[in-house]
Amino acid sequence: MTDITLNRRDLIPALFPKPDEYLFITGLAGPAKDVCAHTGESENVFAMGGAMGSAVTTALGAALSAPDHKFICVTGDGELMMAIGSLATVSSMGPTNLSIICIDNGCHGETGGQWGHTSLHTDLSMMAEGAGIPKVMTISSADQMNEAKTFIESGEGPRFLWARVLNGPPSKVTRNWDLIQRRQIFKSGFRARQS
User: Fold this and answer.
1) How far is CA 56 from CA 2, 7, 75, 76, in A?
2) Per-chain mean pLDDT for the chain
3) In this structure, are residues 150 and 99 in contact, taking their beta carbons and an 8 Å threshold?
4) pTM of the full structure
């Protein structure tokens, strides 16, 4: 992790200055906090809780069900590794409206900071490419943010952005942990976009 200078708290605001243009499905913990802090946990955000490994497959199902909407899946390295086969499923199904962003701090921050596989030898970009994801990019510094924003916005997906970040705390936010209510809010917001 020697060449990593990117602060995770800067990532989501830089990539999505207009977050209302997207529907977000997030993984647990840090990725959920980063997205919820930037969006105010608005109706276009469904942040996971207690469902580790489900973010990519949930986002895939949502993207396939609503091809006219742009979906962003924001997950972490530990969660993605738990369900790495989901990248192959995304590739096989080929949703053109789905972008996956893996915020990778190289450790498992919610369980004590144990080092993760990506802090050693595992290359998630190579894994995404091997799964057949057609558009893959890796960033690790702030000067790559504009290029990453263009990558997310340009053309059809699916695409995978591996954002290697410093091992610092995620954004501070107090989430609504009534997940049934949050699901209903997301569903209502989604339906409003359909009309």
Assistant:
1) 28, 23, 8, 10
2) 92
3) no
4) 0.94
